[in-house]
Amino acid sequence: MTTTGLLGAAHLGTVLPHEHLLSNTIREYRATGLLHDMAVMSAEVSAFVAAGGGTIVDVTPAEIAQGAAPDPLGVLDDRAKRRRPAADTTGTRPVANVLALARLAEETGAHVVLGTGHYRDPYLDRDWFDRTSADEIAELMVRDLEEGFPGTAVRAGVIGEIGAEQWYVSAAEERSFRAAARAQLRTGVMITTHAMRWPVGLAQLDILTAEGVDPHRVVIGHCDLVPLPEYHLEIARRGAYVQFDTFHRCTDAGQLRARVEAMVRLVRAGHLEKVLVSHDVFRTDHLRSSGGTGLAFIPERLPGALTDAGLDAEEVTQILTVNPQRALAG
Q1: In 3D, which of 277, 208, 266 has the Cα closest to residue 234?
Q2: pTM (global) more than 0.70
Q3: What is the spatial distance between Cα 6 and Cα 49, in angstroms, rounded to a whole number?
Q4: How far apart are CA 221 and CA 224, in angstroms?
Q5: Are 244 and 263 in contact (CB under 8 A)?
Q6: Rounded CA separation 255/74 (Å)
Q7: What is the mean pLDDT of each successive set of 10 residues along the chain, which is 330 residues long?
Q8: CB-CB contact of 114 with 157 (8 Å)
Q9: What CA–CA distances, in Å, run from 123 to 172, 177, 220?
């Protein structure tokens, strides 16, 4: 499900399954955390398309979609745009964010898939989560997936990214995960997670599968920031996707080499079909226009790096195209 409607998986092309095109993480990254410049982002997405890219999955959750859209009428001043993001009463993306992303897809020719759901501590509105049941939260996600984001005709295509901030899943985060699981069981879509620095992806997978989710419909994110081969192997053994998705760090050759080695290790262990890659662009300094990798780094640079490391062309295509298509379409 893209911003323009249903699309056959074979037409998705090369897929970036974990990006943020318009997002607001200013509460953590005050100088660089606001992506809302449509002209700049249009150039970044166009570079991805020119490099052979087809589809971008924008996994910006409700909490960091707030204040992350252009303001053509000039009705918001900088302070209003930069205020602390918080879930609104519907727990969904604001209309301006959804419509801006749909316009971005139309302008660039990229297919854009939108996520629904909730982020992680400390972004979660604890009071809202305390007062809203998992079933109620799930109902709102199902609405986004089946009817469209309120005020638009655009439907979400995935759940996520949903996450855990620490090495454990907090109470509010657990409610978010259980709600996501229940929405997934009703819709069949992919769930994609935030599991950074610690091997908390296994605890996330435990919650989701306890609710009945098929692990083959789960993507555990940020695995390249948890450099434990046994962690990667265990996720794959359980049937979930292992996503190496912080290629925005690969302005350093050593960072690229470490990720390629981890991916090849997993492939050689028999888990080629479980490897996904993306940049996780979410700050202005990640953009090519600011000296970062931008969104074209993976289609431009990764195939050659993987081939040099010993993978053949078919294996590279599996990682960049076939695996994310299967993850999205089931």
Answers
A1: 266
A2: yes
A3: 20
A4: 8
A5: yes
A6: 40
A7: 95 97 95 95 98 98 84 41 42 88 96 97 94 96 96 95 97 98 98 97 98 98 98 98 98 97 98 98 97 98 98 98 96
A8: yes
A9: 11, 15, 20
Domains located in the chain, CATH noted: 9-329 (3.20.20.140)
Residues 6+ apart with CB under 8 A from 163: 119, 120, 173, 193, 194, 195, 196, 221
What H or E segment, with its residue span, contains residue 314? helix 313-317
CB 217 within 8 A of CB 248: no
Residues in the chain, total = 330
- Contact 191/218 with Cβ under 8 angstroms? yes
The pair of three-digit structure tokens given for residue 320, joined into one six-digit string = 């960049």
Q: What whole-number distance in Å separates Cα of residue 95 and Cα of residue 151?
A: 6
State the residue for tokens 């589809």: 55
Helix (H) or strand (E) holding 307: helix 297-308
Cα-based distances in Å from 283 to 87, 138, 186? 20, 29, 33
What does the buried/exposed string (b/e) look like for 268-286 if buried means 16 or more CB atoms within 10 Å of the residue's CB?
Answer: eeebbebbbbbbbbbbbeb
